[in-house]
Amino acid sequence: MNFIDKLEKKFPRFGITNLMKYVICINIVGTVIQLIDMSGMLPISIYNDYLSLDFYKILHGQVWRLVSFLFHPTMDTSGLYGSRVFIDLLWFAIWAFVYYQIGMVLEREWGKFRFTLFYLGGIIFVIITSLVFYLVYGGMAAADLGMDASEYLGYMIGTGASLSYLNETLFLAFALMFPDTRFFLYFLIPVKAKWLAFVYLGLMAFNIVRCIMYSQYYALVLILGALLNFALFFIFARGSSSLKGAYTQKKRRKDFEKKAAGAWSQQRRPHETSAPTGGARHKCAICGRTELDDPRLEFRYCSKCNGNYEYCSDHLFSHTHVSG
Question: How far, in Å, CA of 10 to CA of 129, rounded?
Answer without folding.
Answer: 28
